[in-house]
Amino acid sequence: MKMDRRAAQVTNAPGGPEVSGEPLEALSSRPVHPSEPAEGIEKMKLLSAAQTRALDQATIQAQHITSTDLMERAADAVTSWLLDELLLDYDTAIHVCCGPGNNGGDGLAVARNLHRAGYAVQLWLLPAARHSADFSHQQQQLPAELPAREIDPNKLPALAAGAVVVDALFGTGLSRPLAGVAAALVRHINEAGATVVAVDMPSGLLADAPQPADSAVVRANYTLSFELPKLAFLLPQNAGFVGDWQLLPIGLDPEVIRNTPVDKHFVTAEDLRGRLPKRPKFSHKGTFGHALLLAGSKGKMGAAVLATQACLRAGVGLITTRVPAVGYDILQISAPEAMCLADSASDHISELPELTPYAAIGIGPGLGQHDDTREVLHQLLTTATVPLVIDADALNLLGAHPELQKLLPPDSLLTPHPKEFERLVGEPARDDYHRLEQLRAFVGRTSCYCIIKGAYTVLAAPDGTLYFNSTGNPGMATGGSGDVLTGLLLALRAHKNLSPLDAALLGLHAHGRAGDLALPHTGHTGLLASDIVRFIGPALEELMSE
Ligand SMILES: NC(=O)C1=CN([C@@H]2O[C@H](COP(=O)(O)OP(=O)(O)OC[C@H]3O[C@@H](n4cnc5c(N)ncnc54)[C@H](O)[C@@H]3O)[C@@H](O)[C@H]2O)[C@@H](O)CC1
Ligand SMILES: [K+]
């Protein structure tokens, strides 16, 4: 069998109102707007299982079609993908395993399509007391030469390693963990070493809730989902089940999607393109703000350098970086475009500089957690009147001294990775879903923006809306990558004409995209944080208005 692991269609792919002309002071001190609409961030809404069902029904009504018609579209899309992307051979053994509901109905229609096209299909049905109407309809459409065999729990189908298994056991209708024959079959599929293609969802995975750790869940190589991604695909704990996920369009009604209220979005380039104001011809360095960065300690000056360079590459007007005395030469040499303010202490930052000139302030990269530095953070939180970007050791200090969290100015942007987030909230998350609940509670409590870094970095706005980033690659899981993000976000928060939400979304997207642009030059293995810096400019230009 020929295998083509190219990305297909939308491949694992991935706002707010502008405050043009508003003085920065007003931006930072105005009350948080809990209902700030995510204007335009609507291309990829993350719907719950119930909303997905409602969308299917609404599409059927709006387009005057039957549910069978919609199922045929889904099955045609899956069949085309198998033929065009997986490049099936006629002699490849294809096992289509169907459950009792509409996911199984999809499987029956795919099996019929493949059989008609001349492929070697074997069709297996899970024993069940009841079947959905569309399943039964599809079963009646099967040609006589394509027998549907009920799975015998005592003799599960032989699945050769070179075979393709189409998993159409359960989709969004799964309401509880799998048990009995279904669980046994799923474990059998997982052990077979076959190429597993899940229809809509890997069977056993719940669409928007965790399942017990020991549940049987299909470990798919590919998951072919319809139109919109599912929250479950974006969470690290499910990566081993979902595999490479693809979205297949089936004509779900765009108007209904637009009108479906959601609190979670998957943010794509399409959502963000044009949101970064083009640099006007007569712009000067004041237009793009003067940023202050407090970063570095002895042995961690690289973090300060990378964040400074990233801030510059993200188009900040000016940057002043406050470093301990030991870092003065290092910073001046490695970032000559930046101004450098050396602290009187040699190895750590011990004094807060005068804040008046600055449009935004970043703190954290390589900072260390000296008591003096904690005091600097304390003073910053109580005196700053401009947007703050808070990262790394500044987050650890906030975790170690929770009383400081009460001082966080509204609309500050915090950028923890999962471990820093755990320290910040003082409690490990039970699972990825619980972490999202913790994140929402945190932004609700503090009226801040907070991200959690990862494969699909998630941003929570103060109103609890979640935005999953769609760019980036595993090569970026390397030292200094987070420092680069801080610098980039700092530049965008210093930008006069960007709302806090737009600045954060643009920054997250551009960071991942810069990593993706660097990849052909470095490979995953050789990707360094400084390579990300190099491509920030091109990544941001892609999002610039005409
Ligand atoms: N017309 C539509 O609504 C469309 C639906 N589509 C497909 O339909 C799927 C959803 O179909 P359904 O809502 O019928 O749901 P599923 O086919 O995912 O499963 C529902 C069936 O499984 C049973 N069930 C649930 N949890 C179980 C468990 N733990 N153990 C054993 N049985 C269990 C239910 O009682 C029901 O019979 C989607 O994932 C998608 O694949 C697509 O065909 C697109 C169009
Ligand atoms: K499935």
From TrEMBL:
Residues 1-37 are annotated as: Disordered. InterPro entries: Carbohydrate_kinase_pred_CS (IPR017953), CARKD (IPR000631), Nnr (IPR030677), Ribokinase-like (IPR029056), YjeF_N_dom (IPR004443), YjeF_N_dom_sf (IPR036652). It comes from the Bacteria. Binds 1 potassium ion per subunit. Its EC number is 4.2.1.136, 5.1.99.6. AMP binds at K453, G454, A455, Y456, T457, G482. (6S)-NADPHX binds at residues 102-106, 171-177, 200, 303, 366, 417, 483. Residues 268-543 form the YjeF C-terminal domain. It catalyses: (6S)-NADHX + ADP = AMP + phosphate + NADH + H(+); (6S)-NADPHX + ADP = AMP + phosphate + NADPH + H(+); (6R)-NADPHX = (6S)-NADPHX; (6R)-NADHX = (6S)-NADHX. Residues 52-258 form the YjeF N-terminal domain. GO terms for biological process: metabolite repair; nicotinamide nucleotide metabolic process. One of its GO terms (molecular function) is ADP-dependent NAD(P)H-hydrate dehydratase activity. Belongs to the NnrE/AIBP family. In the C-terminal section; belongs to the NnrD/CARKD family. Bifunctional enzyme that catalyzes the epimerization of the S- and R-forms of NAD(P)HX and the dehydration of the S-form of NAD(P)HX at the expense of ADP, which is converted to AMP. This allows the repair of both epimers of NAD(P)HX, a damaged form of NAD(P)H that is a result of enzymatic or heat-dependent hydration. Catalyzes the dehydration of the S-form of NAD(P)HX at the expense of ADP, which is converted to AMP. Together with NAD(P)HX epimerase, which catalyzes the epimerization of the S- and R-forms, the enzyme allows the repair of both epimers of NAD(P)HX, a damaged form of NAD(P)H that is a result of enzymatic or heat-dependent hydration. HAMAP family: NADHX_dehydratase, NADHX_epimerase. NCBIfam families: yjeF_cterm, yjeF_nterm. This is Bifunctional NAD(P)H-hydrate repair enzyme.
